[in-house]
Amino acid sequence: MEKIEAENLLHRAFSVFLFNSKYELLLQQRSATKVTFPLVWTNTCCSHPLYRESELIEENYLGVRNAAQRKLLDELGIPAEDLPVDQFTPLGRILYKAPSDGKWGEHEWKTDQLISCLTAS
Length: 121
Fold this sequence. Notes:
This protein is of the alpha/beta class and 121 residues long. The chain has helices at residues 2-7, 62-76; strands spanning 11-12, 14-19, 28-29, 41-42, 45-47, 88-90, 94-99, 105-110, 114-118. The mean pLDDT is 84.
């Protein structure tokens, strides 16, 4: 947090809110080994687009949609074919800054990358 405050460091991020057909939100408990916010219950998943061609595409938010597919597979085992990129809906922009334990924290620019997805199951 000291470096975030001193240098106003910021990075790109996104959040996924995954709902089933009953509009129930899938929540996830963060790992105890996470540096920031260990064991906290949170939205379906959060991450950062990587610096790779498929995740840098700005048109129709395709890059972040690809990043969301990657992270849903990594964290929850949900294959891309179960959640096509056209099912993701960008919700808006958020500037997010939060201390975790005083030493660590987050400062993220969720640029048109807050994602919602409604599934049939």
